[in-house]
Amino acid sequence: MRFQNTILVLFFSLFISTLCKNDDESAAVFISSLSSSSGHLTFALSASDPTVSQDVFFHISGPSSYSYIGIGTGTVMQGGLMFVMYSNATGDGITLSSRIATGNNEPVFSPTLDIDILPGSNTSNGLMTVNARCKNCLSWSSGALNLSDTVYPWNYALGPNTAQNVKLTSNSPSACLEMHVEYGLFTLDMTHLTMGAGALPTSFTSPIGSRASGSPVLTSNFPTIIHAVLATIPLVLFLPTGVIFLRIFPGSVRWHWVSQTVSSVIGLFGAAVGFYLSTWFNKSKSFSSGHQIIGYIICAGMIVQWFLGFWQHRIYKQKQSPTKYGLIHRYLGHFVFVLAIIDGGVGLSWSYTASPVIIGYSVAVGVVAIVHFSLVAWKRWEKQKPHGVGIFEIKTQQNSPEADRNL
Ligand code: HEM
Ligand code: HEM
Ligand SMILES: *[C@@H]1O[C@H](CO)[C@@H](O)[C@H](O)[C@H]1NC(C)=O
Ligand SMILES: *[C@@H]1O[C@H](CO)[C@@H](O)[C@H](O)[C@H]1NC(C)=O
Ligand SMILES: *[C@@H]1O[C@H](CO)[C@@H](O)[C@H](O)[C@H]1NC(C)=O
């Protein structure tokens, strides 16, 4: 009798647990509120019984104000499988891109995964949603998704959602991504996942078998900002100011020399940060895009300028007469200045900066350029007037007649 009871109980609990598996617990669901905006992120995952099929089904949804929503395996970017979703070119559908990153840098599209987008995937009412089936995902990389792990690590990342950024809308699975503004880690109880033939999770309204690991982390792309500030300001503001030091006030070769040296060193450092930044993005890691090539010319120009200026001044002191180096120095200097203005604008649009920022930049550098070239032109005109006595004339002649003729 006792034995029979035990059998009955065992049978029942087995029956109930099977029932539960097929109903509520056939998927794991992670839901998180976000630090960088209101709204929340939902990720639901289910898989087939591995003996039946290797397919994996998932659902991702979150605010469409983000450029992209990425879900990845692991606790770090490196080596994990990532599903990155963004709006399609017309902004009403979605593009889903499977990617792998080699480290803390832009993940690369991995076309080896065969993913079907299922109905209910779109961008509407402020949400991006994707339902998908990843065919043979379980066998994609042996052990990559471990269905017997109760604390399997996952992560999510959210693309820029600020007004300074252009929102990504693209049909291409290898579209360029900018760095995330927020990421977070969580674990899923993968033993919740399996169901016979496999199907989309049916309910995503409450969390099942998931746990956040720590709080969401806000990230800043400070290397980009450091690059932009240190490359742009010395080149488009300090270098022309150094020309004013030489030709207008106080008309001193030494002031010019010190100012141009400091600006060039800072500018070259800013460009060096650009080299580091180039390793982050797929568009820049071959070091051959327009922005980078113009950047190389500017860097070379700055270095050549320094030696030309130095050489010309040395010869001038010996011969007391203008040299051709001085002439080249003057024209190359203005050329580098104009090139830097252009490259700053190219850099901004290359990194998907919103047009108000680009317009602001253009106005600011336009004003600097107009003031600079007006002062220079006016100075030359004053000098060319027969016996012209301009307000700055006396000072310049006292301090450095060389400056007037040559630099
Ligand atoms: C252009 C694209 C991306 C770039 C340049 C990038 C770059 C970076 C950088 C520099 C960090 C370190 C941040 C810090 O320590 O504050 C980081 C961390 C992280 N990123 Fe990305 N990321 C990109 C896309 C993604 C995507 C699509 C995902 C996920 C689907 C992701 C997930 C993570 C995670 C989980 C961390 C924390 C890892 C750790 O603590 O080492 N990232 N990323
Ligand atoms: C020397 C003159 C240069 C100037 C004035 C300049 C300026 C800029 C500016 C204003 C941005 C936009 C940053 C932002 O959106 O916040 C930018 C981005 C960038 N620049 Fe430069 N840059 C220069 C040289 C270089 C060089 C030599 C390289 C590398 C070889 C480089 C690589 C980059 C990269 C990778 C980005 C980031 C793109 C992104 O965030 O998507 N730059 N640059
Ligand atoms: C974007 O997706 C929507 C909805 O699926 C579709 O109607 C539209 O044609 C797609 N746009 C492009 C450019 O593919
Ligand atoms: C868009 O997707 C949501 C969520 O899957 C769904 O409820 C809605 O009906 C879809 N809208 C359209 C127009 O397909
Ligand atoms: C899968 O997870 C289980 C439980 O955590 C662990 O014992 C096993 O070694 C894992 N398998 C692989 C291939 O990593």
UniProtKB/TrEMBL annotation:
Gene3D superfamilies from the UniProt entry: 1.20.120.1770, Cellobiose dehydrogenase, cytochrome domain
Subcellular location: Membrane
Domain DOMON, first and last residues per copy: 68-159
GO cellular component: membrane
Domain Cytochrome b561, chain residue ranges per copy: 226-348
Pfam short name (any one): CDH-cyt
InterPro entries documented for this protein: Cellobiose_DH-like_cyt, Cyt_b561/ferric_Rdtase_TM, DOMON_domain
Keywords: Electron transport, Membrane, Signal, Transmembrane, Transmembrane helix, Transport
Domain of life: Eukaryota
Signal peptide annotation: 1-20
Entry keyword Protein biosynthesis: no
TM annotation in the entry: 225-249, 261-281, 293-311, 331-352, 358-378
Stored SMART domains: B561, DoH
Protein name: Cytochrome b561 domain-containing protein
Species assigned in the record: Talaromyces proteolyticus
